[in-house]
# Entry
Amino acid sequence: MEKFKRNERVAGLIKILSDNPNHLFSLNYFSELFSAAKSTISEDIASARKIVEQISLGQIETISGATGGVKYRPYISKTDAIRFLDELCEKLRDPKRIIPGNYIYASDIIYDPNVSSKVGEIFATYFMNSGAEYVVTIETKGITLAHMTARALNIPLVIIRRENRVTEGSTVSVNYLSGSTKRIQTMFISKRAIPEGKKVLIIDDFMKAGGTAKGIIGLMKEIKVDVVGIGFLMKTVEPKEKLISNYISLLEVDEVEEQKGTINIYKDMMFSL
# Structure
């Protein structure tokens, strides 16, 4: 096999690790891949770590021991997160996004892979030490954000349904009161989705009063799993008293006024990396 130069090995290391966030690779894997000694690979990893950290691409972590290896942890700095959220707010303030009922059209932004992946990295950075073993969301708009968060953390994604589906098998359901519409609704989860005793992270796109999130928390209690974190892309200022606590949101919507053509949306000042 053709020998690789050091710069080629380092480039390959960074590409493979960043494409597989939080996946633990053994030194043997890279030693065989590049036909190089483990000591050489260790030096390459040190070079890759320095490059990644210098340009704020994330963190490369080595774990010692028989079951150890190397993995890449997506990480976004506070400065980069603030810059990204400021740009996001600027896009969302466009008066053309106001739709009847004083709502904001944001589907194009939420479904943009460049946006959702960055949001996922922010959530992954914030919750990296939470011990979460699953990411949970409810269909539909929060799915892309939850999926990117799950990918960054390298843990499974579970989607809660608003309707019972035969393809889910046996399900558990709860009724909950929507905090915004004050209507009783139902959500479902497959009994096979998450084993008892696991830790989950709830990710969603939007919260107004928190009724849906409270319903998800109730559903998690029904299947005997622990909620270790809750994150939203956006929340509204009103009502100030939410139905849940111990959550984070990245953006805060203060006012949407169709007649004035104004959207007041800012970084949530309570959020900090």
